[in-house]
Each structure stands twice: as C-alpha cells, then as structure tokens.
Design a protein that fits this description.
A hairpin with a 5-residue loop joins strand 8 and strand 9. The mean pLDDT is 97. With 472 residues, the chain is α+β, with helices and mostly antiparallel strands. Helix content is 36%, strand content 21%. The protein has a 7-stranded antiparallel sheet, with helices on both faces. A 5-stranded antiparallel sheet has the order 5-6-10-8-9.
C-alpha cells in the first residue's frame, strides 16, 4: 500500500485540479443525510471518517483514470453524485477517495419519437424534469429528494418516486446505461424496449450502490405530461381499514399515481384542519388521459367509501403537493428543536404489513428513550403488498455516543419486526452502510449470488466496500 501523500501526488499528476483536498470540502463529502449525522453536524461534531481527497470527475475519461489508478494501488473508492441519501451509502472512510460525478451534468439527448432521455450521471433530476415539462413530457419520477437528487445516484440506489403506482420505480424507467468497472473498463448496454437475450446486464447495476461500477450515463423512459389530474382526500377511522381499501384498489387493477395512507399521528400533525381527532387520512391522485383519470377517480371513490371513508375534497391533496419536499429545504429543522429525527421504509405482503406496523408502534415508546413521535404511512402499493414509511423522533442527547445508541435502537426495532414478518428491510432508500450488516439475512441463500457478482466486478474490493454488502 502506497503512502497517502504519494497517492495524492500521483492522483494530482493524473487528474490535475479535479483532485480536491480542502478540509471543508472533505467534510462536506464525508457523509450523507442519515439522521444521526444531521444531529452531529448541527451540534458541531464531524464524526464521519474523512476521505483522502475528492475527485471531481468531468467526464467518463476522468472516471476511467481514477478507477484504473485506485484499482491498481488498492485505494478504496466511494462513488458519489447528489449525496442525498439517508443510509450512509456515500459516507466515506479514512484514506478513501470520494469519486464525485456531480460535474458530469448534461442532458445528452431527448428522443421525442421513442420517448427516451439520456443524461450524464450528475444531471439533477429537478433540471431534467423541468426540461421535460417545457417540452410536454415528464420523467414521472418524483422522490422526496427531488431538489437534491442526481440521475446516476437514483439508479445506483434503486430509487422510487411519489407517483410510483402509475409510473413505477427507477428500475422500470431505466432503459440503458454506461458504467465504468473497477478496473477502468467502460461498458454500455443497448437501449431497447425489452429483450430476452439472457439476464439483462443493466439490471445488475440498479441498486448496487457503486459496488459493481460507477454509473456515468443513464437513458430513461419519459412520459407525455397530460396534466389531467383527478385528486381526492378521505378520512378513515382505522389504519388497518385504510390498508384493506388500498389492497382492493390495487387488486382490482387500478393505478392512481398517488396512493397514500397516513396514520392518525401524521394526519393530526399535517392535516388537522381537515380531519377529526384520531382519524387517518388517505390521499389519491390520478394522472394520464382525461378518460383514464376520470374512470380511476370514480373507482377509487367507490372503493374507499365501501370501507367507510369520509370525503374531504381536494384541498388536503393540494397541501401535500405543496409540502412534500420541504425536508430538502432545511435538513436541520428537527435538530433546531432539539430532536433527532429520521425515517425508515420497509415493505411486506398484505398479510404481514399491519402486524409490522402494530408491533413497531407498540414497542417504540417502551424501548426508545424520550420519544416524541413514532408514526407511519403507506405511499407505494402493489397487488401483492405495500410499503410502510416510519417517521420517528426523540429528544437528542448532546452526548453523541448516547444519541447514536438511541438512533440504533430506533432502527433496530423497525428492522427486527420487519424481518420477523418476512418483509424487506428497505423499500426505496437503499441499504447504505447502515443496513449492510442485515443484507445476508435479507437475502438468505440468494446472498451468495451477490458475493459472486462482487468478486467478479471488483476482485480487489475497492468499490464502496461496506456499503450495500457488509465487509468480509
């Protein structure tokens, strides 16, 4: 292993001013927005490990040079783009190189005939969406991180957007990509609607969080922006009943763009002006051609009222559209009030999802100190089941070791109950470093396939090792 100063000198000779070593920049790139890091930063503590340097790649050639050098010299590489994650996926380790693709920021082509868009990995999703809408299209992809996210990171973390019931997750939108393997080899997949020519290579990189390659270019589907929106909110007495209504909507075959059920705690915090105490709230929106949205709306209205829902009109949905990305505006909002706050998203079949919800809500205030909130909502549903997006907060301790222990306990309760009832421990935020130790249990006997892929793509274990997959 070369001395760190020698590595820096050689990288600067190779990549010039794109190698950054300013302490403020290194700190900025050391972690993402996982809850306990937000609390630490707000209190002036920087406990994440600092990288050796940040390489601001300007193009694929820079990525190739950086990876060839690091692979040859066994230097750990942490791929980064927007760093909007919340599971420590882009968090660095001492002596590592943060390889940042955010300067690779350009839309290469909008293909209107085939409804495809190709962009470099660092292109902001918000810019892509604006570009599409100006031309009568939409990406259909609206994660809460929209103001921060970049397209390469969305693919590498298997992102999903708030209109997923209609448009699908990023895995259903991705058509092709370019990526650079650990040894500097550039690979490119073909942009076709579908093929049966063996396993699809592009799928190997979705959700791999930089373990198998650095994604440099992405081609995704785009959709006509009809703007024929039907929207409606409903009050529901019981959370379990709301889940049953969503199940019937999905299993009848309807696909509203927005299907949300917030429990009574969340409903009371955001929608108190529309509901009675103790009620849950359901939010729906249908998008697409006018006839389709009308039929979808009528079906949703019929089905939720079958379960006793009370019509609240459109205004609660308008409010949700207005506030849905507020977290990105001020990530330290909770910390300013003395709270450690975070979210944790899981998924399970319809037969299991309510038991996960019930057990987590029951255990949380009994096992986590100074809890101020534990709540959940369902926001992404399927014929087979749905997700739960838990939101929790507790009074933060200024002893960072103690605060971290509280945070770990909070997450452990959600993970334990999810695994107990055969759910998945991560629905759309990715694994990161924080959940990596549970991935062998998540995948069971199939985990061996991931080990084989890691050994094949990255035999020297330089690519974000410890993220998504635990260190050996």
């Amino acid at each position: 292993m070369k001395e760190q100063q020698t590595v820096l000198t050689e990288l600067k000779a190779l990549l010039g001013d794109n190698v950054l070593t300013d302490e403020a920049i290194l700190r900025e790139h050391s972690s993402d927005w996982i809850g306990h890091r937000r609390w630490e930063k707000y209190n002036g503590c920087y406990l994440a490990q600092i990288p050796l340097c940040v390489i601001k790649a300007q193009n694929t050639a820079d990525v190739v040079k950086a990876l060839q050098y690091c692979n040859h010299n066994r230097v750990t590489v942490i791929p980064q783009c927007g760093r909007s994650g919340v599971c420590a996926g882009s968090e660095t380790v001492n002596g590592a190189v943060a390889l940042d693709g955010s300067a690779m920021n350009r839309i290469i082509k909008l293909d209107e005939e085939n409804q495809l868009l190709t962009a470099l990995c660092g292109t902001p999703l918000q810019y892509i969406e604006k570009y599409c809408q100006e031309r009568g299209f939409t990406t259909g992809h609206f994660p809460q991180s929209l103001p921060l996210a970049q397209i390469g990171g969305l693919v590498s973390t298997r992102s999903i957007g708030q209109l997923s019931t209609l448009y699908g997750g990023i895995e259903e939108m991705l058509v092709g990509l370019e990526a650079v393997l650990a040894d500097g080899t550039v690979i490119r997949t073909k942009n076709v609607p579908r093929r049966a020519a063996g396993p699809e290579p592009r799928d190997l990189f979705i959700g791999s969080e930089g373990n198998f390659a650095f994604i440099t270019e992405v081609t995704v589907k785009i959709f006509r922006n009809h703007q024929k929106l039907w929207k409606r909110a409903y009050a529901m007495d019981k959370f379990k009943t709301g889940l049953e209504a969503i199940k019937e909507i999905m299993q009848e075959g309807w696909k509203p763009a927005v299907v949300r059920l917030h429990d009574a705690v969340e409903a009371g915090l955001t929608y108190s002006g529309f509901i009675n105490d103790g009620e849950n709230i359901m939010l729906f929106a249908a998008d697409g051609p006018e006839g389709l949205t009308k039929a979808t709306g009528q079906a949703v209205d019929r089905l939720v009222k079958k379960y006793g829902a009370r019509d609240l009109g459109e205004k609660p949905v308008d409010l949700w559209y207005k506030v849905r990305n507020n977290t990105c505006d001020d990530p330290f909002h909770a910390a300013k009030t003395g709270l450690v706050r975070d979210t944790c998203e899981v998924s399970a079949k319809w037969t299991d999802i309510y038991r996960i919800y019930e057990n987590v809500i029951h255990r949380f205030p009994r096992e986590v100190e100074n809890v101020t909130q534990i709540s959940a909502h369902s926001s992404h549903s399927y014929t087979t089941g749905t997700n739960l997006y838990f939101v929790f907060s507790f009074s933060g301790d200024t002893d960072m070791v103690r605060a971290r222990a509280q945070f770990d306990q909070a997450w452990n309760i959600i993970m334990e109950e999810t695994l107990r009832f055969n759910g998945s421990i991560c629905h759309h935020h990715g694994v990161g470093k924080y959940r990596a130790h549970l991935i062998p249990k998540e995948h069971g006997s199939a985990y061996r396939i991931l080990e084989i892929l890691k050994d094949g793509f990255d035999p020297n274990r330089i690519m974000n090792t410890g993220t998504f997959m635990p260190r050996p």
